[in-house]
Design goal:
With 354 residues, this protein is of the alpha+beta class. 23% of the residues lie in helices and 27% in strands. It contains six helices and 15 strands.
């Protein structure tokens, strides 16, 4: 057995080298993180995935169906990475394809489909962009995110990030940009270069993460990890995890402030400015349903989550008809207590009261 050990180690080493080695993030957290430093709490997770294929004639094109499917896997992985750091993704499953680009791209609806050209952005999630203005704002946000991967961190326009934070009641925007070239070979892979060049030129497969404060558009974290060859869903997920590796875990730190809607002209006079330079989050309103007992409905069984997020950890599974006592409400989630004392979160629309 000992004689064969060097051979096994050599095979493993060759395999790692052939795949380009493990992902190597190139950027880190940009703020000092101490025990009392503010960290994100409620985040919007926005994913842009471009899945490139190569046609029989050698031309590279973006596959829309594959891009959206890849974005789903990336969203799942990124969500798990955020939950592991005790961050709450309140806006998730938002998929975009080349939302940050301005040029014309060769695309197909799916693998082997008819090739045609279209000016980017190729796809904007319709559930998030419901009007011409919000569509334009989201496109501007993505383009600003792409530009921030230059030599020095470049903040995003505060008016855009603040408006997004107010509209979705989040304190932080997390952008994940992934380029996958699934049918390329290691020998055809260009040398790794600056992240901005990779994003702009679609030359090197990568996973990039950008964390931006909603209150002022400040970039607080950015990371880029190469996607190892041969590219599969597993290697793409590994690159996303590597890009998230430098994000600190939430502990007892205060959260970033959530932007508050501006006061109207006929509103009551504003209170004295707080000592903190941040705009304070609006106070939580008491929920009239707190303390009431309801029943789980709608499905054969429902997962009770540790945090108000579908991407969190499941603490219990209960059948429809189970009685739950509401403790509090957080937007679209109820914090409930089961008869056995277990406490967790359930989507509010899955609890009915009689």
């Amino acid at each position: 057995m000992r004689r064969g050990l060097p051979l096994v180690l050599m095979i493993v080493l060759v395999g790692v080298l052939a795949c380009g080695g493990p992902p190597k993030p190139r950027y880190t957290w940009l703020e000092p993180v101490t025990a009392d430093a503010p960290l994100p709490e409620k985040v919007a997770l926005l994913v842009d995935a471009v899945f490139m294929r190569r046609a029989p004639d050698g031309r590279a094109y973006a596959s829309i169906e594959d891009s959206i499917a890849t974005a789903g896997a990336i969203t799942d992985e990124a969500g798990q990475d955020l939950v592991a750091r005790r961050w709450t993704a309140t806006v998730k499953n938002k998929h975009f394809v080349a939302a940050y680009r301005t040029d014309e791209m060769l695309i197909a609806n799916g693998a082997g489909g008819e090739l045609y050209t279209k000016t980017a952005p190729l796809h904007l999630d319709p559930s998030l962009c419901r009007s011409p203005k919000t569509t334009a704002d989201m496109t501007d946000l993505w383009r600003a995110a792409q530009q921030s991967f230059g030599a020095a961190p470049k903040n995003l326009p505060a008016e855009l990030t603040r408006a997004f934070g107010v509209r979705n009641q989040v304190d932080t925007l997390v952008f994940v940009i992934v380029l996958s070239q699934k049918n390329e070979t290691p020998s055809a892979r260009p040398a790794a270069g600056p992240a901005a060049d990779a994003i702009a030129g679609r030359a090197t497969p990568f996973a990039a993460v950008l964390v931006v404060r909603a209150i002022d558009g400040a970039v607080v974290f950015r990371a880029v990890a190469d996607i190892a060859y041969p590219q599969r869903e597993g290697t793409i997920r590994d690159a996303v995890t590597a890009a998230f590796a430098g994000i600190p875990r939430r502990g007892a730190q205060p959260a970033y402030p959530t932007p508050a809607a501006p006061k109207t002209a006929d509103a009551e006079p504003a209170a004295a400015a707080p000592a903190s330079p941040w705009v304070q989050s609006p106070p939580a309103q008491a929920d009239s349903l707190a303390g009431r007992t309801g029943q789980v409905r709608g499905y054969r069984s429902v997962s009770v989550m540790r945090t108000p997020s579908a991407l969190g950890v499941v603490v219990a599974t209960v059948p429809a008809g189970t009685a739950v006592r509401v403790i509090e409400r957080d937007d679209a989630w109820f914090r409930v207590q089961l008869a056995n004392g277990v406490i967790g979160w359930i989507p509010a629309d899955l609890v009915e009261f009689k």
